[in-house]
Amino acid sequence: MSTTSVSEWITEKREERTLHDWIQDLGPFVMLFGLMIIFTFTTEQFFTEGNLLDNVAKNAVTLLLVSLAGTFPILQQSIDLSVESIVLLTGVATVVLITEFGLGLLAIPLAIGVGMLAGLFNGIVFTKLKVPSFLVTLGTLSVLAGVGKIITGGSTITFRNPAIRTISTGDVLGIPNLVLWGLLIYVGTIILAFRTKFGRYCFALGENERVVELAGAKVDRYKIYPFVLSGLLCGTAGVLLTLRISSASPNIGSGLLLPSIAAIVMGGTALTGGVGGPHRTILGVLVIAVLNNGMNLLGVDSFVQEIILGLVVVAAVAMSIDREKIDVVK
Amino acid sequence: MESEIHTDAMDADRGSPTSGGDHSFRVEGISKSFRHVQALKDVSLAVDHGEVVGLVGENGAGKSTLLNILTGVLQADEGQLYVDGEPVTFTNPREAANYGVSLVHQEQDVITTMRGYENLYLGRERERFGVLEKEQMREEAQAFVDDLGINIDVDDYVRNYTFNERQMLEIAKAFHVSQKSENPVILLDEPTAGLEESGRKLLFDLVNDLRDRATFVFVSHELDEVLQISDRIVVLKDGERVDAATAAEATTDSLQQAMVGRETADEYYRIPDQQREADLGATTMSVEEVTCDDTVGPVSFSIREGEIFGIVGVEGSGKQQLGRLLAGDLDMTQGSVSVDGTVLQDPTVSDMVDAGVGYIPKDRKSEGLLLYQSVLVNTSLAMVRDMNGNIPLLDMDAEKEATLDAIEELDIKTPGPNALVHGLSGGNQQKVVIGRWLAQETPVLVMDNVTRGIDVGAKEEVYRLCRELTEQGVSIVFIGDELPEVIGMSNRIAVMAGGEFVDDPFDASPGNKPTEEDLIQEMI
Question: CB 3.0 to 4.6 Å from B161: which of A67, B165, B287, B350, for a disulfide?
């Protein structure tokens, strides 16, 4: 009976809207507009069409795709730490498929397929061998980066194929293709999250796997899918990025993991799973993109930028974590 | 059916606030309620130095709540605790221990990766300049257990202890934490659960040997044992103290009557509405020799359209595992289940749901519901399985319709389909779990304690609902701890013990119901 009373107490608590709820809901908006206003007044270039579209938006797309990728495993209360290595591997694969294998457009789906395979591997090891996802993907983070770097031979590899490049570099009515791809995929992930069985199970698994299992769902399968999706989206990010700069360096993708997790959490997807969704991840992405761009324009030292980014991540997580749902933090 | 036993012992232990000095430990007029549930109502209890007092009652009678209050885990709404006649208040278990009151938990509460003496001193380690005095602790611990007559090696890791030795260690720990007190009060919560016969004997010998050094309160479901070890026995029922007797006067029967003590189950469960034998349809599910390792089986039975098949048994009899087995949640090592002609061997949950068997688990909070998702998400959780037709999108209209239907048919009191489930009352939450299976074709429902932890009104509604379902031809496997409920609801009742049916199921058709005593005899 004591359990009943405790949960009822929590219920009561939850029905009041706390300051914390407001911070969670409005925080990213306030931060985004706050930063934009600050940079508009402190720099001349920030609020220009050229800067916002060519720098902020284009740079944000890679982070957006990687963050959307990471959102789904987190929704189901696991995590994919290998995202940036998948970007690297698929980027390298794109160049190699075009140059070494002489493939044209076909290189794109194949490279994305490489990303999906990496995700499938993560998912299977996590689900079937019951290895915690953060360990599996921490391992593949290192493995896939190693593979990618070996293929590059340690230096930047390039290709020449202007026709294929336009997929990423072209524009429609003045809006860069890259940005359009980002928006298209963004909408796609929202549909996936809120209008499909896959998305429904993601949220449900994030809250209580046993309940989903006893309702008759093939749980293992649905625990693997988010990792495959993550591979697909990171693969797409890797391909688009490679097409944009027509090369893949051994460092492509590196440094995306931390800001992507920050963006996801800032957007309201809790690391404890079950709540949030990709629709708000974009807010976190924009905050980080604007912050990066603004600091660059202000000439902030890149090492200092690293410090600031790290602080933003910790602060975002601290603000958004739902402490009442957690008993023990390890 | 109040028992006739009313003795001096009962009067004596009611005591009076002024003359309580001779009692070592006494509680007066304890009441405790959780929201609308009155867990304890004006309960008084006194234990004399050197006494062993048995405390019995059905599940939910308030035993655990009382123990929690006695040890400071919970605080009473009303009432007062006295130690040696002095009023005391415990706000946590440590304070209770300072007055000598400690609890030996039902589930063993030892850390197996640590040594015996480390467990004994856990949380109260002896240190010198911040460094553990291991040698002293080890020596003192060994002397301490030797003195109690407990034969364990405190330097060994607890993982190497037998089950019985762990229990002994726990009792030693209870003495150890309350050693400041001259008169420890040791509360034993179902200490014999899981013990072998030899272990029980050891435990009883120990309690007998330590009688003059402590007071014991012995909580158990095994009435024989309570009678054997206790000087006096106190009976709780529905949060009230209904009886007390000396062990010499009480019998298992008299205790049983006092524990159950309610009207016969007829009417209460709307027996007149029960499906008659003649109205039952064809066999929907038949279970053939199903076995799960050594916990269940082999068990065989079949159930017909509109029938309610009750399963009872004590904790550990395998009834819960049988339910899980039928849900596909445990590995069926042998045997098969056929549902409407489809034969399934070692099915998964998904297979069973496909075949039309829905499972309602005992613990709805941890296994039944997504508490922080909406009523709609919870209700449609099973039906979404089939939503991947031509377009792989959820049929949101169908989901909403099914949810609104469930809300209306089951009378679920919720602000709306999008309200979160955690805000609903226990009864309404359970209706959501039931609604999940009604939202799709489910000819067989396996219910494990479906009315657990919901209030009387909601129980009534669940009974009514089960009756309505059987009228529509649904078959229900009704696993329950509350005998009157199972007797009232079921057409037939099987008693489980040791993973098997003890005998052929009882016929429980209206007018032909077995009594609780009939069932209990087979259960034990």
Answer: B165
Asked if residues A287 and A266 have their Cβ atoms less than 8 Å apart, the reply is yes
Cα distance between residue B75 and residue B159, in whole Å: 34
Q: pTM for this one?
A: 0.74
Query: Using the beta-carbon criterion (under 8 Å), do A204 and B396 form an inter-chain contact?
Result: no
Using one digit for the tens of pLDDT, what is the confidence trace for A214-263?
A: 999 999 999 999 999 999 999 999 999 999 998 999 989 888 998 899 89
Put simply, the answer to whether A208 touches B392 (Cβ < 8 Å) is no
| pLDDT score for B21 | 44
Calpha distance B466→B489 (Å, rounded): 8
Computed on alpha carbons and rounded to an integer, the radius of gyration of chain A in Å comes to 20
Q: Which of B392, B413, B440 is at the close of a domain?
A: B440
Tell me, what DSSP letter sits at residue A52? I
Contacts of B299 (CB under 8 A, 6+ apart): B287, B289, B290, B291, B322, B335, B496, B499, B500, B501
Write down the mean pLDDT value for chain B: 83
- Residue ranges making up the domain that contains B68: 8-260
Strand arrangement of the beta sheet that strand B52-57 belongs to: B101-104, B185-189, B215-219, B52-57, B232-237, B240-246
Nearest-CA residue of chain B relative to A219? B350
Residue B112: CB atoms within 10 A of its CB come to 12
**Preceding omega of A226 cis (within 30 degrees of 0):** no
pLDDT over threshold 90, residue B64: no
> How far is A22 from B106, CA to CA, in rounded Å?
43
**Cα A61 to Cα A64, A249, A253, B27, distances in angstroms:** 5, 19, 12, 68
Chain B residue with minimal CA distance to A214? B349
User: Is residue B177 scored above 90 in pLDDT?
Assistant: no
State whether residue B426 sits within 8 Å of chain A by CB. yes
Q: What's the ipTM? A: 0.83
Regarding whether B200 and B60 lie in a shared domain, the answer is: yes
> Does one domain contain both B428 and B289?
no
Amino acid (1-letter code) at residue B134: K
Query: How high does pLDDT run on average in chain A?
Result: 87
| Three-class secondary structure assignment of A258-283 | HHHHHHHHHCCCCCCCCCCCHHHHHH
Residues B156 and B299 reside in one and the same domain? no
Helix (H) or strand (E) holding A74: helix A58-75
Asked if residue B252 has pLDDT above 80, the reply is no
| Burial of A251: CB neighbours in 10 Å, binned 0-12, 13-18, 19+ | middle
Whether residues B84 and B162 share a domain: the answer is yes
Q: How many angstroms separate the Cα of A221 from the Cα of each of A226, A256, B349, B479?
A: 10, 28, 14, 31
User: What is the Cα–Cα distance from A263 to A280, expressed in whole angstroms?
Assistant: 9
Classify residue B274: in a domain, yes or no: no
Query: Are residues B436 and B447 both part of a single domain?
Result: no
Give the CATH architecture of domain A27-321. Orthogonal Bundle (1.10)
Residues 6+ apart with CB under 8 A from A19: none
Return the residue of A nearest to B68 by Cα.
A2
- Express each pLDDT in B397-447 by its tens digit: 889 999 999 999 888 888 888 888 887 877 889 999 999 998 888 999 999
In terms of domains, do B305 and B385 share one?
no
Q: What is the pLDDT of residues B446-459, one digit of tens each?
A: 999 998 777 666 77
Q: Which residues on chain A place their C-beta less than 8 Å from a C-beta of chain B?
A: 1-5, 7-8, 10-11, 14-15, 191, 195-197, 200, 203-204, 207-208, 210-218, 274-275, 325
A169-185: average pLDDT: 91
- First-to-last C-alpha distance (Å) of chain B: 23
